What we know:
With 246 residues, the chain is of the alpha/beta class. The protein has helices at 4-14, 47-55, 79-89, 99-103, 109-116, 139-150, 178-183, 198-204, 214-217, 220-233; strands spanning 2-3, 27-30, 35-36, 38-44, 60-65, 93-96, 120-124, 131-138, 155-157, 163-170, 188-191, 208-211, 236-239. Helices cover 35% and strands 25% of the residues. The strands form three sheets. Strands 7-8-10-11-12-9 form a six-stranded mixed beta sheet, with helices on both faces. Helix 5 (109-116) packs across helix 10 (220-233). The longest helix is centred in the C-terminal third of the chain and has 14 residues, at 220-233. The mean pLDDT is 98. Zinc ion (ZN) binds at residues 64-65, 172-173, 214, 218.
Amino acid sequence: MVNQEILAGYCQQYLRVDKFDDYCPNGLQIQGKPDIKKIISGVSANQDLIDAAIDEKADALFVHHGFFWKNEASEIIGIKKNRIKALLDNDINLYTYHLPLDAHTTVGNNIQLAQRLNIKNPEPIGDTLVWQGEVETTLSKLSNTIEQALNRVPLVFGDDDKSLKRIAWCTGGAQSYIEHAININADCFITGEVSEQIPAIAFENNIAFVSAGHHATERYGVQALCQHLSQKFNLKCQFIDINNQV
Length: 246
Ligand SMILES: [Zn+2]
């Protein structure tokens, strides 16, 4: 068991939250009961995940995508009211970690994805959110590896036979960061989503591009974080995957 404030303080330090200028508050976003024994993790704080956490009698819910984004309306009405009311009525703490959880070098989404795709020597590119590493494969083989690891068919742009050695990736909706991959002469850039202009940008820069799913590429950081917390504080923890095709 751990107190909610102690857990928030620990995560703040462990994930180096103060280093990030983010689009949402990181940490305890909704305050619930003080003592925490059981935590549920999931990618996004939507109603299905909250309902599942209630069914599981969770004391805390940990997510990558929480509430209170910079550009969203600040009123608490409609589905936002429903989600927040469900958490408050059930005394469930909501902890959200966004960019700090992408970047962390042990439990972060990017390092966790690299481990699942057997990418060697993974490291961030300078002070960007994009990572680089080494593989010895072809585009079609990488596509198969991704499909098996993430249980999702990726959208792939480039020649099947293209040989890949240097690879760059950034989990989530990071398609506009393809520039960082081009700058280091990567053979391929993997991210979660794709936009209309990306296939041409990739083709003209002779770089393969893989859209492997925003949700699918960001399942692993929050799971790794909660496994770490469960060992550290002797908590029960469970990951709940609410299917999302994007
Ligand atoms: Zn995301």
